[in-house]
Amino acid sequence: MAYPTHRPRRLRRTAALRRLVAETRPSIDGLVLPLFVAPGSGRAQPIAAMPGVAQLSVDRAVDECKAAFDLGVPAVILFGIPERKDAIGSGAYAADGIVVRAVEAIKSALPELLVVTDVCLCEYTDHGHCGIVENGEVANDASLEPLVKEALAHARAGADIVAPSDMMDGRVGAIRAGLDRAGFVDVPIMAYAAKYASAFYGPFREAAESTPRFGDRRGYQMDSANAREALREVALDVEEGADIVMVKPALAYLDVIQRVHERFDLPVAAYAVSGEYAMIKAAAAAGMIDEERAMWETHLAIVRAGASIVLTYFAKDLARRMR
Ligand code: PBG
Questions:
Q1: Spatial separation of the C-alpha atoms in residues 138 and 217, rounded to whole Å
Q2: pTM of the entire structure?
Q3: Whose CA is nearest to atom 14 of ligand 1?
Q4: pLDDT tens across 21-60, in order?
Q5: Is 107 marked active-site?
Q6: Listed residue (139, 153, 149, 249) closest to 203, CA to CA
Q7: Quick check: CB of 233 below 6 Å from ligand 1?
Q8: Which CATH class is domain 23-322?
Q9: How do residues 70-99 score in pLDDT, each as one tens digit?
Q10: Is-catalytic flag, 195?
């Protein structure tokens, strides 16, 4: 049976009908706003490649969290820019490190806002790699201990969720064991499980001052050609104790989000990364696309693919639109 009995256009005729039959209804509840915290006070240092995003001193980060929370955004994820970087990324686990201080300040001002912390060394190493470098290579096993120490420092400060993004093998298990040993059995791990080596991280590296000084991240982040390998990565992280699994970037990996969502019964997160944000902002600034509509359409696609949690620099704008 087809036309003229069936006319799909019937359900598209008015806004009310379209709203009634919408299959995908993104919720504010799944939004996570990324924030870059830096030393100083009263400081907001704009990031050129990410209009509307800035490196914020802790006090300004608290203000930004209040603004997001007032709009209904339930969670933020913190990235730290330390005072000084060194070869081993010791700022990542310093007792008075930048993320530690930010977590403490945010949790005391807004106890109900979920604070997620990115666990990685790249923001803290002078070479910009995500782990410890030995003989010109990022050494997997030597990188686990500092990552565990970093996750512990964040948990002690009061982080609600830790999110390892380094892509070392075995780090989820090591962090889980470290947290458990220290009594943090209830701190969940959101694993950047399928994280690809991507051109779309470009603006973030300006924001976090974490561009590798030599080489690139292809020796540890995933090859864009692979989707089945993503399922393997996710399976390993699940086995090691991940509570939430993430696919990153989002828009160029919708197939991966969908497959992860079909295969696994854990919550699936997706990270709409800096380059995805910058593309929409730049095209809109050039008058080439409508920013609001492009933001919404891409967000719908990510949720439709199966992500119930979306880390996005548009979190406040999306929340405003959904209210
Ligand atoms: C670092 C990290 C990166 C991002 C999140 N965590 C950058 C990278 O791997 O180079 C990218 C986020 C973005 O582009 O918005 N470990």
A1: 9
A2: 0.97
A3: 201
A4: 999 999 999 999 999 999 999 999 999 999 999 999 999 9
A5: no
A6: 249
A7: no
A8: alpha beta
A9: 999 999 999 999 999 999 999 999 999 999
A10: yes
